[in-house]
Amino acid sequence: MPETVEIGLGREARRGYHLDEIALVPTRRTRGSSVVSTSWQIDAHTFELPLVAAPSDAVVSPSTALEIEALGGLAVLNGEGLWARYEDPAEAFAQVCQDGGCSTAQLQRIYSQPVSDELLAQRIADLRASGVRVAVRLSPQHTAALSPAVLKAGADILVIQGTIISAEHVASAHAADEALNLKTFIAELDIPVIVGGCTNYQTALHLMRTGAAGVIVGYGAYSGSTTHAALGIEVPMATAIADAAAARRSYLDETGGRYVHLIAYGDIANGGDIAKALVCGADAVMLGEPLAAAAEAPGQGYYWDATASHPRLPRSELIDLGVAAEDRPQLREVLLGPTADASGERNLFGAVARVMGKCGYSSVKEFQKAELIVSSAR
Amino acid sequence: MPETVEIGLGREARRGYHLDEIALVPTRRTRGSSVVSTSWQIDAHTFELPLVAAPSDAVVSPSTALEIEALGGLAVLNGEGLWARYEDPAEAFAQVCQDGGCSTAQLQRIYSQPVSDELLAQRIADLRASGVRVAVRLSPQHTAALSPAVLKAGADILVIQGTIISAEHVASAHAADEALNLKTFIAELDIPVIVGGCTNYQTALHLMRTGAAGVIVGYGAYSGSTTHAALGIEVPMATAIADAAAARRSYLDETGGRYVHLIAYGDIANGGDIAKALVCGADAVMLGEPLAAAAEAPGQGYYWDATASHPRLPRSELIDLGVAAEDRPQLREVLLGPTADASGERNLFGAVARVMGKCGYSSVKEFQKAELIVSSAR
Amino acid sequence: MPETVEIGLGREARRGYHLDEIALVPTRRTRGSSVVSTSWQIDAHTFELPLVAAPSDAVVSPSTALEIEALGGLAVLNGEGLWARYEDPAEAFAQVCQDGGCSTAQLQRIYSQPVSDELLAQRIADLRASGVRVAVRLSPQHTAALSPAVLKAGADILVIQGTIISAEHVASAHAADEALNLKTFIAELDIPVIVGGCTNYQTALHLMRTGAAGVIVGYGAYSGSTTHAALGIEVPMATAIADAAAARRSYLDETGGRYVHLIAYGDIANGGDIAKALVCGADAVMLGEPLAAAAEAPGQGYYWDATASHPRLPRSELIDLGVAAEDRPQLREVLLGPTADASGERNLFGAVARVMGKCGYSSVKEFQKAELIVSSAR
Amino acid sequence: MPETVEIGLGREARRGYHLDEIALVPTRRTRGSSVVSTSWQIDAHTFELPLVAAPSDAVVSPSTALEIEALGGLAVLNGEGLWARYEDPAEAFAQVCQDGGCSTAQLQRIYSQPVSDELLAQRIADLRASGVRVAVRLSPQHTAALSPAVLKAGADILVIQGTIISAEHVASAHAADEALNLKTFIAELDIPVIVGGCTNYQTALHLMRTGAAGVIVGYGAYSGSTTHAALGIEVPMATAIADAAAARRSYLDETGGRYVHLIAYGDIANGGDIAKALVCGADAVMLGEPLAAAAEAPGQGYYWDATASHPRLPRSELIDLGVAAEDRPQLREVLLGPTADASGERNLFGAVARVMGKCGYSSVKEFQKAELIVSSAR
Description:
Four copies of one chain form a homotetramer. Chain A is of the alpha/beta class. Chain A has one domain (19-374): TIM Barrel (Alpha-Beta Barrel). The first copy, chain A, has helices at 62-71, 90-96, 104-110, 117-129, 140-152, 178-187, 201-208, 227-231, 237-255, 271-280, 289-292, 331-336, 348-358, 364-367, and strands at residues 4-8, 11-15, 22-25, 30-31, 40-42, 45-47, 51-53, 74-78, 135-138, 157-161, 169-170, 193-198, 214-217, 261-264, 284-287, 302-303, 319-320, 371-374. In chain A, helix 5 (140-152) links the parallel strand 9 (135-138) and strand 10. In chain A, helix 7 packs across helix 9 (237-255). The two termini of chain A are 28 Å apart. Residues 176-180 of chain A have low confidence and may be disordered. At the A-B interface, strand 1, strand 2, helix 3, strand 11 and helix 7 of A face strand 3, strand 4, helix 10, helix 11 and helix 14 of B.
């Protein structure tokens, strides 16, 4: 039964746990890394790593998408980012990544340039031409308008992602129920759809019922996020992932075996966080900030996501990652190592393989059974 | 049943929760902001925002009262503040808001000037003349002496407010019971009365029984407060509000339907805190420090409240809000946005409307049913 | 039943609470300060304040003992401190309180000067001559040797105090049981004895059975204490006081009404801490560090206690209180106010009277029934 | 029953406790230090102190091994450290301990020099010639290759230690089960074997069943460790030790009386931590960082362990202990005092004897019964 507390007379609340409040407990047996596999398969697509690169302009560009695929992960291009707003986004990137990083007001202005579905289609076509699997993120608000161009251009995977979405959105007093739209929309597509973010059992279950191949848990909280301050929403990720895993079990039962993938997004900074997210029940992790420090990242040492440029209520800040240009590691070092950095922020998936071995498991799915301990964060 | 722990053999204590220990959990469905209303009605008065500006000289002056009303809130003038002590308070404000802020000793001296009921009546008359609804705060100790002038001058709402009050005050061994006085006093008035602050179920219930239209929960703890250090009193606001909401339910039952409004005051710094206070059961929030940073605020970049100038035992300190004069936002930006500040401290009620939508509720009263989660504060 | 947790398989531990984890909850009614009394009576001695000044050389000298008594408290002279080691301790004080404070090694050297029972007797005689009630502290180890001189010189109250003591000390394999000695020793005295410190129910009960008039709870933890680091001992004071209060109830029952006073010592920095210690069950508080900042204090802006000069294993450090000489308040301001300092560290007992009133109680004994709330420390 | 929480629907986790979340509670009686013994016996070896010096190159060299034995403890030489890689390791030490400490990349390079079993045998022979008991640590991976030379050279105790090991290691899909190897390997030896680290009941029990004389609990977490960040593994030591003590009881029962010693390693910084580890059930502690500050330590003011030089995934950093060369204490002061340092980091075992006395116990085995309290760390 979920742990609840009474915060006041007659008012109950769940107790949620953050990833940094839990840790893994190795037990029984250990395995060498050579008998461990971190591979991940969603729909017809197989990846060596359980990794989705977040649709942040600071991380995924057409060129890093190629490289992330080559290293074993899936990169998601933001269909409403700078590459879809500017024919040559170099100048926009230069402004964002100016010395010290641009202000929120500047970011709002730079992102006020309209999205062009022609430009977006061109980016997708270029990516396809280079032979990479193309995943594009659209916001729920603009999916209806932009998806035709995206689909026609040949995207392989569509990611419909807002900070917090539901399967049942009431846009206005008179509009038809968008939940039905989402379900209908996905049913008519030939490619797999990933939807999110969500934060609890019920929303996860309803999103699974839309026919999505994957559900994103969390809204990508990073060190610059201010969503808790602005909106009062916070997602203790260990609890949110475990709840969504419970929804996956319920949905498996009600469908007689349809498995929806969970992709954990937010409060994941290092290899340990990835491992813990997987053990809580995630099939893969979506990473933004941890990849932005790489030398190849378009963010040039800065990280921001779509919430940072919101025109009326920005809910995160562009942050300086604090790594000098000459010290930025290659993406390969960040993902696969080897590394001479002991922070836990590099060789992320080498670390995951190692801890899977220390816990005695040989696949990500088995690893979800590992033991957890709760302790006060150090 | 309330959560209690045994702190020692035979000694029990409730477990209280602060607003920053809880967070909202969006679930089921979402709504667009256009189908959300934040309006609030107390007695015959309707406001677009569930906002009461605190009776701090740093926030409410005759001119900001006009502006706060225009933006949709209710402003409370401190009937024992500088405007009631000085014919022209400009010099006093200049001393308080001197470079770096005045010392507690200076504050004590400035506030040692006696309150004039004539001056107070004049302020009220001027406000009425400008067409604004006039709310005035008096301390319980001076209500008997000052209220005749306040009422005669035509105040619309009377706020009887001390840091912590009760419905039953024993002033001396021989005095009559003031609880009866408060009840009698309110019964004889033609205008609605708001009383407080209180911190628990029982006091809230007793204050409701005085006939008050609204009860204030909390004593306005702000970043300069030292009440916990000085007196050992601390109000975990989530618990205090939820307990007072339980008292409201009890009182609704015993009166067959009289609804007393709860106004949360203290430890509210941003839009997220406001949302959480409403979900815990508040009908509106009283804001001091969050409004003091506005360009129009009389505090000129500083905030203090009545406890800061106490002549024998000051229990808070005047604080420098740390915003340069040229960076101070307009009150409109603070309350309604838009903003290019991602701290969560601006566009406060735009944020509330947005999170109400993300939780799927269309009115403040419904929003009180939203789900909460407890997690360790980040 | 005490709250226990299982820290590992088959290993249980009590959950203890610190004073800063709890807070007072005003409720029901309030009282004006004029109908509140903070007075305290132990044995035949009555004091206006529930205050014992700690036997630290930084706080109690013959001259401050006079002043503390005049202000309403009881001062305890350290019978093994500098006044008993040096005929003219001025030079020793000058070395201890040199600019920046002396080192632990210097402190060890200064306190290596032997205690003289003649000097000690002289100090007591001088104090008696000035008309003050004389309380002297001796360590358990030296009580046998030094108490004859102390008693002969006419001390009014004897304080037998080590950091942690028990009623049953085994000094060596062959020595007689000192527990009997302590009981026998006290039985033969004509003056009241206060003993301590202790940290739990059982030790408190056994110390009460020695015939002591008062028992000290805690070992005087202050901001320079390192006992937890050095020995692994820590006293969550709220729990320790409440447990000792349970022992007092047991002892009242087994003796048919003998009331032993509890004196809380440690982790008390301000008026709020004092109030909370009383509500947990203390009859009075022993204060060291909070008094050392006074202008009259012999510590001249520094604080240290007997554990800081231990010759082999010092367990605290002399600390600089960080108050410039010209800013040091008078003892009267520290204890009784008024003050223009909002830190909670001045007007300590004015604050206690005020919060007793806010909780509706008129005596310290009644105040022990006030409501408590547990919340995470801010 | 172990304390478990549900972190999400259907997902449980143990609650673990760190040493700094617990404290000792003196009770009943006290003892003088002269009637307390801290001695420890494992197999045929008796030591005055329950101390094992960790196999870190920063702590144990052939010369400090002599001194640690003389002071009453057991020193473990790292059989894969610099002394086994360099004929004259002085230059390697000079590089590691260069001003400011070397980088992780440099450490990786310095430790890339191969281990020589001849050099290792020579070190052991030299130590034996000086009359000291010789303990050598090998990693599980290299035990098979290096142990013949170690045994032939005459080591008295073999320590098989990795960060986290199990009794059942699967190295590759086709390899035979190493668990059998470990059991067989130990059965054939004539000298006692200590194995570890482990973190829970089950692994501890299985390691006991290999025939080891001692089991190490923990992986030596120190202030430079990043294992939690890198791998998501963290060991709340109080819980891990108590669980291993439960395994010891189970194993005593199933073997009819074979007692396996527990050696706690990690998160132990001062005398209080040692005392708490013993009370949780350890028979001795393994100390690295606390000894590295000594004047004699080969680390010259720096500390690192084997995880810091891992070639692909370093999981700790070499740290500067921050003690100037002229301020480094003698090993004797660190272990036995006296000291003029009040940090709790010196006179470690004098402190243990003192707190054993304050809790009323005369031997380490009895001390394991002392009372514990859980409180929030200060």
